[in-house]
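Hi support team,

I've been running sequence recovery on a batch of backbones for a student project. Most finish fine, but this one hangs at about 90% for roughly twenty minutes before it completes. I'm not sure whether the input is malformed or the queue is just slow. I've pasted the structure tokens below so you can try to reproduce it. Let me know if you need the job ID as well.

Thanks,
M.K.
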């Protein structure tokens, strides 16, 4: 589980709800018709805006926000360097026995291409296309929450306008103006909460997850092509360490040392 996502999500909602409750009348912030307008309208518009096959990925996207962990780049570098050492001693065909033990589908595909003797330029082209398709899929998943973030405040404003119209239609009852205005503004608050406390953070986390995965895939491509070119394992290690952030690179050097 990604504790940073969970802690951030819980902290945001708990602090906001606690602030609302501190006024002593939490029930004033609850209005079922406003929830129906804002949440129902935003979700409905999001469903209309996206094809069905893309909507089926919502559950998986949310799971990746809270349960996926950062790729083990240090482990990847160590594994690829060990493959480089083996290939240098025994040849590329010796790596075929290791393909089944690799967890990453992308890495297995890259190794199989190399073991099969595929031209290096073709290997890079195939793997780059795979990365591009991966980014497109993740971008499509992210766009669902971008759409929800866009429609949330919009339907909040629609709800506010509906409430104002109803309030202005009953101006003869002066005592009802205050409560009517409060109910009208609640939908705007709901729309902002939906966008800023859920949809936008999820979208940004999906973008960060995608960037991490792409960086890991690029590391794999560079390593596999270096192995195919028969480069010295130490050179392969230095090339791959460039992909590691400074602190991670320092940790890698400590482990190797």
């Amino acid at each position: 589980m990604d504790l940073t996502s969970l802690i951030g999500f819980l902290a945001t909602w708990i602090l906001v709800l606690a602030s609302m409750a501190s006024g002593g009348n939490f029930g004033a912030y609850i209005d079922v018709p406003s929830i129906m307008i804002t949440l129902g309208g935003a979700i409905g518009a999001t469903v209309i805006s996206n094809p069905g096959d893309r909507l089926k990925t919502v559950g998986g996207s949310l799971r990746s926000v809270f349960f996926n962990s950062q790729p083990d780049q240090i482990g990847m570098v160590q594994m690829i360097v060990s493959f480089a050492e083996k290939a240098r001693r025994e040849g590329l065909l010796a790596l075929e026995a290791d393909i089944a033990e690799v967890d990453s589908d992308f890495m297995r595909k890259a190794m199989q291409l190399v073991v099969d003797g595929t031209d290096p330029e073709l290997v890079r082209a195939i793997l780059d296309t795979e990365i591009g398709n991966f980014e497109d899929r993740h971008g499509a998943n992210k766009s669902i929450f971008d759409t929800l973030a866009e429609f949330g405040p919009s339907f909040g404003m629609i709800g506010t306008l509906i409430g104002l119209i109803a309030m202005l239609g009953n101006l003869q009852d002066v005592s009802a103006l205050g409560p009517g205005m409060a109910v009208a503004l609640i939908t705007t608050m709901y729309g902002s909460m939906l966008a800023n406390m859920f949809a936008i953070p999820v979208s940004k986390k999906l973008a960060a997850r995608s960037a991490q995965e792409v960086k890991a895939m690029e590391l794999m491509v560079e390593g596999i092509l270096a192995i195919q070119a028969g480069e010295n394992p130490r050179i392969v290690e230095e090339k791959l360490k460039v992909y590691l952030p400074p602190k991670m690179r320092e940790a890698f050097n400590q482990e190797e040392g």
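--
Follow-up from support: It reproduced on our side and the slowdown came from queue contention, not your input. The two ends are 30 Å apart (CA to CA). No action needed from you.
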